[in-house]
Amino acid sequence: MVTAGEFCNRTVFIVRPADSLIGAAKRMRDEHVGSLVVVEDVDRGRRPIGMITDRDILVHMLGEERPKVETLSVGDVMSKELIRAWEEEPLLDVLKRMRSYGIRRVPVVDTEDLLVGLISFDDLVEQIADEMHDLAAVLGRERRRETQGRAQPHG
């Protein structure tokens, strides 16, 4: 059984609630990501407290007057209802929760609720595609072996 901690991407791009919304948008552009985990700094690390996506930013920026956009912070726009995955939690349980909440990204936390990684729908699809490719290769080899076995005369 694969756990969330084994599967997650350990490179996570973060932002803090007081950071500017425009700065968060530029960070997403520069890092080629569609979301940032919003964190608060605690003694032993970073605790996730929300998420902000490129869609969140776009919707808020289009709905505001230009001068106001420049004053918005990540905290003004971020989603505050954060769905987490625990590092030791089975990956299948995390997938079910993602489906039930209709979310594409889930921060992974340790037993102290500190950020350790991120599971994204895109990473899951990529992993499944790789596994499907491997399965297709097995089928192809099996067919070739069967064909070769029939071509030889039996003695």
Tell me the layout of helices and strands.
Blueprint lengths: L3 H4 L6 E2 L5 H11 L3 E8 L2 E9 H9 L3 H4 L4 H4 L7 E2 L4 H11 L3 E5 L5 E6 H31 L4
Parallel strand pairs: 1-2, 4-5
Antiparallel strand pairs: 2-3, 5-6
Walk me through the structure.
- This protein has 155 residues and is an alpha/beta fold.
- It has a single domain (4-120), classed as CBS-domain, CATH 3.10.580.10.
- The protein has helices at residues 4-7, 21-31, 54-62, 66-69, 74-77, 91-101, 121-151; strands at 14-15, 35-42, 45-53, 85-86, 105-109, 115-120.
- The strands form two sheets. Strands 1-2-3 form a three-stranded mixed β-sheet.
- It starts with a helix and ends with a helix.
- The mean pLDDT is 88.
Order of strands, main sheet, comes to: 1-2-3
| CATH class descriptor | Alpha Beta
Please, how many domains?
1
Number of strands: 6
Q: Helix proportion of residues, in percent?
A: 40-55%
How confident overall, as mean pLDDT? 88
Question: Beta-strand level of the residues, as a percent range?
Answer: 15-25%
CATH architecture: Roll
Main beta sheet: 3 strands, mixed
Distance between the termini: 47 Å
Low-confidence stretches: none
- Structure classification: alpha/beta
Keywords, separated by commas or semicolons:
single chain; alpha/beta; 48% helix; CBS-domain; elongated; three-stranded mixed sheet; 7 helices; 155 residues
Give a brief description:
By secondary structure, the protein is of the alpha/beta class. The protein has 7 helices and 6 strands; from the N terminus they run H-E-H-E-E-H-H-H-E-H-E-E-H.
